[in-house]
UniProtKB/TrEMBL annotation:
Taxonomic source organism: Methylophaga marina
Residue ranges of domain GGDEF in the record: 293-437
Domain PAC: 211-261
Keywords, comma-separated and alphabetical: Phosphoprotein
SMART domains given in the database record: EAL, GGDEF, REC
Protein name: EAL domain-containing protein
Domain PAS as annotated: residue spans: 137-208
Chain ranges of the Response regulatory domain: 9-125
Amino acid sequence: MANTIKKQVVLIVDDDPVTRMLMTQSLTSSELQIVEAASGEEAIIQFTTHKPDITLLDVSMPGMNGFECCAQLRALPKGAECAIVMVTALDDVEDIEQAFESGATDFITKPLKWPLFKHRVRYILKANKTLQELSLNKNKLAKAQSIANLVYWEWDFESEFLECSSDMFDMLGFSKETNLTVRTALKKVHPDDRPRLMMALKQAVYEKQSYDIEYRIIRNDGSVLFVNERTDISFEYGQWRMVGTLHDITSRKQSEQEITYYAYYDTLTDLPNRRLFIEQLETAIASAKRHQNKFALMFLDLDRFKYINDTYGHHIGDEVLCQSAVRIRECVRDSDVVAKANYDADNRVARLAGDEFTVLLDDVGRVEQVAEIAQRLIQAFSEPFLISDKFLHISISMGITLFPDDGHNVQTLLQHADVAMYHAKEKGRNNYQFFSETMNNYLKLRLEMENDLRIALAEQQFEVFYQPQYDAQSITIVGVEALLRWRHPTKGLLTPDVFIEVAESTGLILSIGNWVLMQACLQVREWQKTSGCAYRIAVNLSASQFTQSYLLDTIKNTLDVTDLPPETLELEITETAMLKDTAETIPLLFSLKKLGVRLAIDDFGTGYSSLSYLKNFPIDTLKIDRSFVEEIVSNTKDCAIAQTIVQLADNLQLCTIAEGVETSEQAEVLRKLGCAEFQGFFFSHPMPAQQLRLLLDH
Ligand SMILES: Nc1nc2c(ncn2[C@@H]2O[C@@H]3COP(=O)(O)O[C@H]4[C@@H](O)[C@H](n5cnc6c(=O)[nH]c(N)nc65)O[C@@H]4COP(=O)(O)O[C@H]3[C@H]2O)c(=O)[nH]1
């Protein structure tokens, strides 16, 4: 392909044809295209058509003179980029000044020196091209800088003024006319960042060390701009100078802050999350070690939160968490302990997960102070939460550990606070507990037990024992109570008092309970079939089994599978379980009753003893608790209570069965009181199925 170099265009404007001709002759070459105009008016037309690179413009022409023409050419498109050289015969200073004022690039005087003329024109063309390229590059640079949010400045160390790009005035909030000095620019820097920048500047001036730092600028409207300043120091033309760029990194900083927020804060409550809390705890440990002081860690858990979430839905649950966060914060904000340590109280509270919160109290002098705050927190939750027109009562259980007394590292402190919190839950919730080593051992045992229970279930280490229940008059067996036993591989045969509570709290009781139910029904059905007697089987239901929505289906299914006559199955439920949530339990009791099974209240007299519920509930039997039977012979009060229970049962046409009958005297008193049935060691201990079969056979 031919290499076509674009010719540069020269416009010659002169009313004298001879001058035009001579100029053309002098300039004619393969690189230049010559265009002529005989007047200012024609020059405008030619200029618009050819867009020349240089215009040689005669000053004195009839009509529009050279100055006027020059001014008009400059206003045309591309007019600013063309070199306009005034050709004047008048070697007069005023003319020259007027020429520049009207926008001329240069001037040549007549008479023209022809050997020099073409060199002069070529030189001006070249210079103009370089200038244009320079201006183009400058524009490109300015554009690039503006895209990159970059401004620049220059400082020659000796002067106090800064030379800067126009965008820098905007960035700092100065008008473009401002004579910007280092001092005035520094005033815009955030006071916290200023000393750092001044230090860098000093090193630059005295040690010629360039710098690269980030700092904040406060703009006139108060908004904060984050900038990154990079500098370069050089020695040029006998002078030290420093060039710097300022990069607006505000959006990057904001993104960084956002990322940090998501990484370190809980978006629901705005509290520090687990990660930030662990870092704070580490810092607290390091600081307490350095200053040899104490701090406290509180571990809070909302009581019944799961219930609220399940009952009212997650949006209410979330609101509870938010309001709880506010209450905890408020309590801690007022705390003298936190104020004393000059820490940001808001950051002392964290949300670890779900309904678990922590509070760090620094520089604790006396443990009593911590107890006061704990009490204040408990108090703060005594007021109900108002959420979506509902008043919800939520309490907290709290475990407290102290550094260094209860642990030296994050893990131990947290673990022990958790143990203490667990203990608070066990103590009936809505309270706080300080950690103690005994507590720890106890909980370790519990954990072991929980583990063993799972194994027991998987490896079928459970057994059902049966204790006969006798008719008080005939002393014949009318039924049996199924009682769970655990044949532990190392600890031997265990009774429920050792493990039932752990099974309850871990939920394992559900699987265990279902297993007992099935096992007992199968067994008693077999006895019924072989003996032809309608023996009754009493099975204990734990509170959690009783609140399971599928209890009814479980019972139905067990009856179906075992073919047991429903009226021979008696479900023993404690008073407490039955009265926990009567809105739910009453319909359930009626549904169970509809299946035909019998219902007994276990340990009657030890719970609420609210007699009013008896007439509302479809109950068949009251079991007189062992505690009343124990001293029934010697203690008149116990005897009176037993009597009242029997009379009450009679009035309501319920059956009574006395538990824990150990002596014939007790049996005698109870018989006289009118108690219908007996169960106790005096008659028979709980025993394995094979053993009981022998008893039944007799
Ligand atoms: N001192 C004394 N005690 C007597 C006498 N007669 C019977 N007992 C004991 O009294 C308890 C009666 O059972 P409970 O009140 O339902 O109390 C039961 C019941 O609440 C619970 N339990 C037992 N088996 C199960 C089960 O399968 N599921 C559930 N949820 N709980 C069970 O464990 C509790 C304790 O059961 P056990 O240790 O088997 O203890 C049994 C029995 O061995 C006596 O004359 N003197």
